[in-house]
Amino acid sequence: MHKRQLSRKPKKIAFYSLSTREPIQFGSGWISGVIALSLALLGLGMVLCIKFPSYFTLPELRVHYPLALIRTLLILILSVSFLAALTSLMLRQNKALGVSALGLLILTMLIGGRLAPLNDAVINSYIGLDWYLLNLIVFCLIFIPLERFYALRSKQPIFRPQWRTDLLYFAKNHLAIQTVALLVILPAKLFFGWAVIIPLQSWVQDLWLPVQLIAILLLADFCQYWIHRTLHAVPWLWRVHAIHHSVEAMDWLAGSRLHLLDVLITRGLVYVPVFVLGFSDTVIMVYGVIVAMQATFIHANVRWRFRRLAKLVVTPQFHHWHHSSEKVAIDKNFAVHVPLWDRLFGTYYMPQRWPKEYGIAGPEQVPISIWGQFWYPFNNLLKPKK
Ligand SMILES: [Zn+2]
Ligand SMILES: [Zn+2]
Q: Tens digits of per-residue pLDDT, 110-167?
């Protein structure tokens, strides 16, 4: 009797606690719980987008949605979430995942009602919830299986340390896409209008699209190379960029960790020559997709080395070395599209092996929270110098 009481005590705590040491392998109710909670969150996001399109969807995307299909998909997602939540509740001692998923499903039902969209008087949205959800689904579907089957570090879990911080960065980058895009193109439009030469722009736009695409990639990466190198060289700018280098576990989500100023400085300056030369809209759009995919892929936890292609194109191994804390790799591999610029300017580093460790080499201590990281570059400005 006494023994039984002792064994029950920790289980009671585990029932309510959000953190638990209960096993997470198949059959423990953890996977079904994670699926239930993820789908419940997705369902809630979809309902918000359908019910309040003016506030939560981008006008450019809104007009293309097949609503009937999305509603069918929503019912499917909510049903699977409900069944997964029940499975998790039955299998798992700790009910946090299952109960949270059920709570979210009830909230979704309450908000959804008959699902008719409310008044559409507001024309512009300020939160790209649909953009965030679409990107999250696409990236998860591509990269989670890729990192499971071809992992460089197979013991690194999907939910590795600090994944929440990086998911917040991913969310921020996509939810605020309208504002960020506006801030990125604003400096070029405000200060470089004088540099626009119409005949030159017409000549560029008349070039064959693949030629324009190669030109934009080379040019953007040349600018990005020098901006990136400057971010490493100037002490205060390094404090801004150090946030990106504070990642210690590389995966597809890690690339999202960028200080807002880092994004605005790099993308804003890279956009200047793109704006002045007036590349066609199609080319800028394709370039944007390549940037998003390549930037994610080069951080991924995949072991592919692309031996021959790696000489021409930036690969995960090339960028993993940029994130390495090993002394030999400090301030190397600044390019993100083509290693050509690092070869030309003497910063190319690409041994056969992979780095052993990632992160910041020096004694610098970057905070863990997204908020702490936002203030990190400003801390030493506000503190009086000794
Ligand atoms: Zn860097
Ligand atoms: Zn990186």
A: 888 766 665 555 556 678 999 999 999 999 999 999 999 999 999 999 999 999 999 9
String of DSSP letters for 312-355: TS--HHHHHHHTB-SGGGTT----SS-THHHHHTT-----SS--
Q: Which ligand is nearest to the CA of 266?
A: 1
Give me ligand 1 centre to Cα 281, in Å. Answer: 29
101-124 tens-digit pLDDT: 999 999 998 888 766 665 555 556
**Would the pTM of this model clear 0.85, i.e. be above it?**
yes
Taking the CA of 298 as reference, the closest ligand is 2
Residue 228 CA to ligand 1 centre (angstroms)? 6
Under 8 Å between Cβ of 22 and 94: yes
Residue 242: nearest ligand to its CA?
Answer: 1
Distance from residue 153's CA to the centre of ligand 2 (Å):
17
Give the closest ligand to the alpha carbon of residue 336.
2
